[in-house]
Write a structure and sequence with these properties.
The protein is about 45% helix and about 20% strand. By secondary structure, it is α+β, with helices and mostly antiparallel strands. It comes from Ornithinibacillus massiliensis. It holds the Pfam family GGDEF. This is GGDEF domain-containing protein.
Length: about 625
């Protein structure tokens, strides 16, 4: 058979082999090709190798005679001095240089190696075992090389096209799935399961910059941020938003770090661990880049969706809270309202509402609604620390790992939120938790907004109560005013069962003023007021009746108890005032069973005081409603 005929048959073999190519594999193609060439050329053996770029080795993909396995292993040994020459399409035996075909340098050798360099896909080598007497013409070797390079190119394009189609179909399916998911947990789960389907032999981690639920059981870790961590490939991938590849020699694996990049930022890194040191093909890198970008956009979309839901919810919460704060609530109700919202949002261990006392520019104290911790010495120290910091900075404080000089301080998470009105810090809300990093940044921002919206209500209500207190308080004695006392008595006579009123008058008070001066006279009144306040309960109302006259109203107290209290106060005043003074006292009472009025009640008490003065002063006189009615009958 002449060379021309053989060349045509080789082309036909090549064509027929191509018809057996399956999009799912090359095995039949290589085997059919090797068998056909073996039979046509009457070879002793034929071996076909392809170069695996990832593992940097030659792979035997077809052979016709197992007895030449030792030779095959020798060719594929990376320590063989000819191995790189074959891979780089360079001569290692005798070569017809102009055609780049390898042939034996020794006429007794029976092997010829033909390097195959297709324009698409991995290189290959055809090793032919030939009877040395028969040999092969260089034209045939050239034909084998050209035709096989052409067919290898076609096969690789078909297989690569199919693989790309499958991968990008997977990517399309993943994208479609992502579009219907709006929960971060579902997104993370889909990312991991999808990449596992594509690369089942690899290990994966999501290195996230966002908060995540550690109870999900997913391979999720927080990405490291520190001075040293910036040198890590994972941190570089995140910071530069570019894929990083790391060959870890000691662990004998290769890591790919692909940034999860959206339109607005990078949300983490997909870590792919290949259990060997390999050179990852560029087309695979490109696919992983697209996959990671798709995943990043899905995470971003979910975050934006959840943030928008949170924002709507937060705005609704703030709107509802603002409406309630504007409904003329007192300070206790406002504090309870804000406290309940804080507890609902972040479940703190302690809450302190710290407010500035208007009469003292730099003195802050815990008001009602604060937890008991802020009444302790330790709580007051914490309060002073954070109030001082906020007064200097006029900014909120957000700490996830607070360390105190006090080794026993049990709280690590801190939010201190200033109440700023007209550029001035009027108060501070301090929120504590025993766990580290117990509060999220979103919770911190929401509480900032709540405190900003509630500050004006706090300021106005406290100012209103202070004005009311000023209006109902006697400036000199800090006792209640006459008007306040009258209102309380009238209110109680409508709802209570009984009550007793004591009127005191400082005996010979004009003489005190004339002898010692009005300043000392004022001091005497304040001394009497102090003694009165020290002898009454919180429900009782002490007031300055007018001038040197003082009063105490005792709700739900009968007249004789009032007389005893009046005598006790008289005794203490006589013993402890300086200069020494005495009191005259009149006592009267009312009961629900009697037909009485506030006016009559005041008149009776005033008459009792008048009688005490007439009886010689420094005494207590009572005058009951029964006595008043009897006097009216005899009048």
């Amino acid at each position: 058979m002449n060379i021309s005929s053989i060349q045509e048959k080789i082309k036909l073999i090549n064509y027929n082999s191509l018809t057996t190519v399956s999009p799912t594999g090359k095995d039949n193609f290589y085997q059919n090709l090797s068998t056909s060439l073996y039979n046509l050329l009457d070879l002793d053996f034929i071996c076909i190798y392809t170069y695996d770029q990832s593992h940097k080795q030659l792979l035997l993909v077809a052979q016709t005679n197992d007895s030449f396995e030792a030779f095959s292993n020798k060719i594929a040994d990376p320590h063989n001095k000819y191995w790189n020459a074959i891979i780089d399409n360079q001569p290692f035996m005798k070569i017809v240089e102009e055609d780049n075909v390898f042939s034996s340098a020794n006429t007794e050798e029976t092997t010829i190696a033909v390097p195959i360099q297709p324009s698409c896909g991995p290189a290959g080598i055809i090793v032919l075992g030939i009877d040395s007497k028969q040999g092969l013409a260089e034209e045939l070797l050239i034909t084998i090389k050209v035709e096989l390079e052409r067919s290898f190119t076609v096969v690789n394009e078909v297989i690569q096209s199919k693989q790309n189609e499958e991968k990008y179909q997977t990517l399309y399916d993943i994208t479609s799935t992502f579009l219907v998911l709006n929960n971060k947990t579902e997104i993370y789960t889909e990312i991991i399961s999808s990449i596992r389907r594509i690369y089942p032999d690899y290990t994966f981690y999501l290195l996230l910059a966002q908060d995540h639920d550690e109870t999900l059981g997913l391979p999720i870790r927080a990405i490291e941020f520190s001075d040293d961590s910036t040198k890590l490939a994972s941190s570089q991938a995140f910071l530069k938003a570019e894929i990083q590849i790391e060959n870890r020699i000691q662990k004998k694996n290769t890591c790919i770090y692909a940034p999860l990049k959206g339109h607005q930022g990078v949300y983490g890194v997909l870590q792919i661990i290949i259990p060997m040191i390999i050179d990852f093909p560029e087309e695979e890198i490109a696919f992983i880049r697209k996959f990671a970008n798709t995943a990043g956009k899905a995470i971003e979309s979910t975050i934006l969706y959840q943030n928008s839901k949170h924002l709507v919810s937060d705005l609704q919460l703030i709107n509802d809270l603002t409406h309630q704060l504007n409904s003329n609530l007192d300070l206790t109700e406002i504090t309870r309202l804000v406290r309940d919202q804080i507890i609902k949002i972040c479940k703190p261990s302690e809450i302190g509402f710290i407010y500035k006392k208007q009469e003292m520019a730099h003195h802050f104290e815990a008001i009602g609604g604060s937890t008991a911790f802020f009444e302790t010495l330790e709580g007051r120290m914490v309060m002073r620390t954070f109030v001082s910091d906020i007064l200097k900075r006029k900014e909120a404080i957000f700490l996830g790992e607070f360390t105190s000089k006090d080794a026993y301080f049990p709280y690590h998470s801190v939010m201190a939120l200033p109440m700023i009105n007209a550029g001035e810090v009027n108060g501070v809300v301090i929120v504590l938790h025993q766990d580290s990093y117990a509060f999220s940044f979103d919770e911190f921002k929401l509480l900032q907004s709540i405190i900003r919206h509630s500050t004006l209500a706090f300021v106005n209500t406290i100012l209103k109560e202070q004005l009311q207190k000023a209006a109902s308080t006697d400036y000199l004695t800090q006792l209640n005013s006459r008007n306040y006392l009258d209102e309380k008595i009238i209110q109680h006579m409508k709802s209570g069962e009984m009550g007793t009123l004591i009127l005191f008058d400082i005996d010979n008070f004009k003489l005190v003023n004339d002898t010692y001066g009005h300043y000392i006279g004022d001091e005497v009144i304040k001394q009497v007021a102090t003694i009165m306040k020290s002898n009454i309960e919180s429900r009782d109302v002490a007031a300055r009746w007018g001038g040197e006259e003082l009063a105490i109203y005792l709700p739900n107290t009968e007249i004789n108890e009032g007389v005893q209290l009046a005598r006790k106060i008289n005794t203490q005043v006589e013993s402890f005032t300086e200069p020494r003074v005495t009191l005259s006292a009149g006592v009267s009472s009312w009961t629900k069973a009697s037909d009485d009025s506030a006016k009559n009640f005041f008149v009776r008490t005033d008459k009792a005081l008048y009688d005490a003065k007439n009886y010689g002063k420094n005494c207590v006189v009572k005058y009951s409603i029964e006595e008043q009615e009897e006097d009216n009958l005899h009048a």
